[in-house]
Amino acid sequence: MEQMKFAFFDAKPYDRPSFDKFSEAAGVSFKYFETKLNEDTVELAAGYDGVCVFVNDTVNASVIDRLCELGVKVVALRCAGFNNVDIKYAFGKIHVLRVPAYSPYAVAEHTVAMLLTSIRRIHKAYIRTRDFNFSLAGMTGFDLHGKTVGVIGTGRIGRVFIDICRGFGMKVLAYDKFPAEGLDNGDTVRYVPLDELFEKSDIISLHCPLTEDTYHIIDSEAIAKCRRGVVILNTSRGALVDAEALLAGIKSRKVGAACLDVYEEESDFFFEDFSGHIIEDDILARLISMPNVIVTSHQAFLTEEALSNIAETTVSNIVTYFETGMCENELCYRGGAAQDCKCGKCF
Ligand code: NAI
Question: Is the full-model pTM beyond 0.85?
Fold first, then answer.
């Protein structure tokens, strides 16, 4: 089979070793572009069989139309979430492949790392001791043991996170649109309505996808229902949380702490170095200025194991699709179009 040529957008130095390793043997060649895919950069895809994109590339209707005009056949997402792709519009026009799971441990463990850092003030201690300041003033944390954690989304990552929380001796209140069988044990892990989760949780962690249903699932109304001092963890997608409402909650002391690996407007900032710039986003700047807010730059996925799995599955998706015309990791939306779908994974 001829070599398959892919334009790789939003390429970072840490992407290349794993993608080069798996692509060479498989007959896939990647041309790495540092720029993100959007309406302005889509022309770079000319002459390629497919594009390989990440979480902050834009695959909306106009990008899809232009990709089709350029003869591009496949959008290979090197991530699990696909809220940045207009799946409905893509149906029948271009094939969209993704990596449904690469390391739920990477994301769940990062969530716990952020939680412990926040509640045990490790971020403060690190800076203090580097300055030989060994004072403990303001460092009092709290035990996780015996606390109640609310987990929204009990899929792959949510369930690993729950396992870790149970190891700490925490109680789990879970909410999912499609509850997982066998998870609720009627005692330490219970599915509850969303309002009950808000009312009874000391810590709330988001592990659901961003959809119309989950957009701003944490907003001012939700925060009003929460316990005073609630800790909010978001390592899923920025727009699950209304950042302005979160900031208000922090200022009013209703929210005790927030750990954010994702942010609603992150595509303007995350993954890039803005250290010498004046940040225009007042909400982000104000959140970062808070002593009880920790922000990481969408790095929860970034482990060696995850990078290797992402590259291996992305390349395998591409090869499988071009060899057989179908791929079990194809995303599909049956919008009543005439085209027969072969993916078997329609939703
Ligand atoms: P998954 O598909 O295994 O689980 C998602 C769960 O959310 C499912 O159980 C589903 O039923 C549930 N869900 C769907 N709609 C819901 C709703 N309206 N309310 C409550 N629950 C709902 O996905 P996985 O692998 O666990 O990933 C979860 C999310 O984590 C992804 O959607 C992605 O946004 C995010 N993610 C973040 C990464 C990072 O680096 N920060 C890396 C990978 C994923």
Answer: yes
Same domain, 61 and 201: no
Residue 336 has pLDDT above 60, yes or no: no
- Name the residues annotated as catalytic: 237, 266, 298
Instruction: Out of 6-15, 150-159, 237-246, 337-346, pick the least confident.
Output: 337-346
How far, in Å, is the centroid of ligand 1 from the Cα of 207? 5
DSSP per-residue string spanning 191-207: E--HHHHHHH-SEEEE-
Q: Indicate whether 325 and 204 sit together in one domain.
A: no
Pairing, β 189-191 against β 95-97: unpaired
For ligand 1, say whether the CB of 103 is within 6 Å of any of its atoms.
no
Instruction: Please tell me the residue having the least CA distance from ligand 1 atom 16.
Output: 177
| pLDDT confidence band for 337 (50 / 70 / 90) | very low
Range of the domain at 37: 4-102+303-340
Which candidate, 134, 90, 36, places its Cα nearest to that of 335?
90
Distance (angstroms) between ligand 1 centre and the Cα of 20 equals: 28
